[in-house]
Every structure is written in C-alpha cells, then in structure tokens.
Design brief:
- With 333 residues, the chain is α/β, with parallel strands linked by helices.
- The protein folds into two domains: 155 residues, Medium-chain alcohol dehydrogenases, catalytic domain (Quinone Oxidoreductase, Chain A, domain 1, Alpha-Beta Complex); 150 residues, Rossmann fold.
- 31% of the residues lie in helices and 26% in strands.
- The strands form three sheets. Strands 3, 5, 6, 7, 8, 15 and 16 form a seven-stranded mixed beta sheet that branches.
- Helix 3 packs across helix 4.
- It starts with a strand and ends with a strand.
- Keywords: Oxidoreductase.
- InterPro entries: ADH-like_N, ER, GroES-like_sf, NAD(P)-bd_dom_sf, Quin_OxRdtase/zeta-crystal_CS, YIM1/Zinc_Alcohol_DH_Fams.
- This is NADPH:quinone reductase-like Zn-dependent oxidoreductase.
C-alpha cells in the first residue's frame, strides 16, 4: 500500500512517499480503508524525535494520528463493526499510521463516524476531540457555573474545547490573534483576549481551569488567572510524575519528568493550584460520546484547509506555521 514514511528521525525532515506492507489484522482489529486523515502538531514532534523516550517508534514507520474511512475487514473477535461501516478514530500509541491507504485499528479505539459529517470533517475530530474531552470532562471535571480559560482558541484543540466547555455550562475565555476573534466568538467564547493587544494575565482572574498548549511563559502567567483550588492543565508540557507512572516509564525517566515539572508544580502548589500534564489516549467509547454531540449539532468541526494525499509534506509544513484555524486534513479518496 502507498504511505508517507519516516525513515529516520530528523527535525523538519520530509516524509518519504513509498510502499509499505498491508497491515496485519489481529483477532480484535478492524482494517480500515482510509478516506481522509487529520494532521496535528504531534506528527511534527514525533518526526523531529521529540518523543523518542516516550514513544520509541522504530523507523521506517508510517506517521499520522487521525483518520476516517470504511471498514474493509474485521478480526474474528470483533463484534461492534462490520465491513462497509463508516468509522473514525485516533489509533492508540504504538499503532499509529494514518498517512496511508489502510490501517489496522483495535476495535476499542474505533467509533462510527457521525452521520452528518463528511469523511474529511470526521477525520479532523478524533485527536482534538479526545484531548478536549479528557482535559475538560475527566481531568478538570468542568461543570456549570465554572470559568475556564482556553489558550489558542482558534487552534485544533481550542476550537473543539470552546464548544465542549460551553456545552458543559462553563463561562469560556480564550486567547487568539486579531484575525481570529470572530471565529472564536462564533464557537461560543464569552471573553476573547486578543494577545496582540492585551495581556491575558492582567485582564482575567478567579478562574477555575486553564487549558494550555502554549509555551512555558504562558504556563507560568496562567497561574495568576486561577483561584485557589483551580486546575492548570497543559497538553504541551512539562510532563509530570503522574504521567510518567501512567506511561509505565522506567525509574530514570520518572526522575527526569519529576525534575522537568518541579518548578511549575512548586509554584502551583504554593498558590493552592493543581498542575497536570495531559497526553491524550485513544478511546472509542469516548469518541462515540463525541459522535452524539456532533450529531446533535452541539459541536461542529472547524476545518482550515484540505490537501490531497500526495501533498502530505506540504500539509505538514503548513501545520507547523501555527497559523491554521482549526484542523488541516488530507484527502485520500
């Protein structure tokens, strides 16, 4: 099958377009013919080697973490899906590879595609949807009447998280550039901070939750926005000891994570704030709950651009500019 392949870790390196063996389908696997694949900053970071200690993929391997397509075959123990079903997923770590014509996905990671979305719209959802769900519902326990600041509201995670937070009944503030103010307002943001004109930490206070994907400076400033008992959740790091334990990392890496996050954890604790790092996981059941929200038109996808499969490297370069509004998607069929 045709695929875009990493032959070696290299910062900014191009993916090779070539042939790879058809996926092996286990008893609990579903073989999917991929129609569209979403791109994420995570793809670039893995290509660059930033996650080698945590996700030790061995080149050559196929990149890609989001997909929508049609079931082509099912394993002998699969019960929830059948050939011809339209599905979408974020494959679990260790089994990624959506920049390809086919992928074998564990049944537990898969969900039926929302009926009211096209393939390319559906492919934009899994990673950002699950990230937002696990941050806001699981980690933060966000509820009606609370206040949340979502940084980078016009990005992939931000556009989804704003809508989910509003559905949960929260008051939502977000940061964005001047060009994207109207976009985030249309998604439901109550308070919009144009970071080119305002300093969010001087404007906001008394918040219950902050969700950030930005740099360490923004992480530090976000502490002043939160009230005692608040929660600071980062999807960009630094990783913390809880994450290291969940990943089953060895003693040395656990100590590295402890040291990397020591500063922010100490500052947060001194203010009575909880800090945590979130690295989302695949979960087909949660994705099915997200499907229900999309079919009820509570949440809608936000697409920036689509690229043909042959232009995967160009699409990845565009994602790396950080200027996309919502998600960037590849179309294969």
């Amino acid at each position: 099958m045709k695929a875009f392949i990493i032959d070696k870790y290299k910062k900014g390196g191009a993916l090779r377009f070539g042939d790879m063996p058809e996926p092996v389908v286990g008893d609990e696997d579903v073989l999917v013919e991929i129609h569209a694949a979403g791109l994420n900053p995570l793809d670039s970071k893995i290509r660059d080697g930033a996650f080698k200690p945590l996700l030790p993929y061995r080149p050559p391997f196929i990149l890609g973490h989001d997909m929508a397509g049609v079931v082509a075959r099912v394993g002998s123990k699969v019960r929830q899906f059948k050939v011809g079903d339209e599905v979408y997923a974020r494959p679990r770590d260790g089994r990624v590879g959506t920049f390809a014509e086919h992928i074998a996905i564990d049944e537990a990671d898969l969900a039926l595609k929302p009926k009211n979305l096209s393939m390319k719209e559906a492919a934009s959802i899994p990673l950002v949807g699950l990230t937002a769900w696990q941050a806001l519902v699981e980690r933060a326990g966000l509820r009606k009447g609370q206040k949340i600041l979502i940084h980078a509201g016009s990005g992939g995670v931000g556009t989804f998280a704003i809508q989910l937070a509003k559905h949960l009944g929260a008051t939502v503030a977000t940061t964005t550039s001047t060009a994207n103010v109207e976009l985030v307002k249309s998604l439901g943001a109550d308070v919009v901070i144009d970071y080119k004109k305002q300093d969010f930490e001087k404007v906001l206070s008394g918040y219950d939750v902050v969700l950030t994907s930005l740099d360490g400076g923004t992480l530090q400033k976000s502490l002043s926005v939160l009230k005692p008992g608040g929660k600071l959740i980062s999807i960009s790091g630094p990783p913390d000891p809880d994450f290291a334990r969940q990943q089953g990392l060895n003693w040395f890496l656990r100590q590295v994570m402890r040291l990397l996050s020591f500063g922010i954890r100490r500052k947060a604790a001194s203010r009575g704030i909880g800090y945590s790092f979130l690295f989302m996981r695949a979960d087909g059941r949660q994705l099915s709950q997200i499907t229900s929200l999309i079919e009820a038109r509570i949440i809608r996808p936000t697409l920036d651009r689509t690229f043909p499969f042959k232009s995967t490297n160009e699409a990845l370069a565009y994602v790396e500019t950080g200027r996309s509004k919502g998600k960037v998607v590849l179309t294969l069929r």
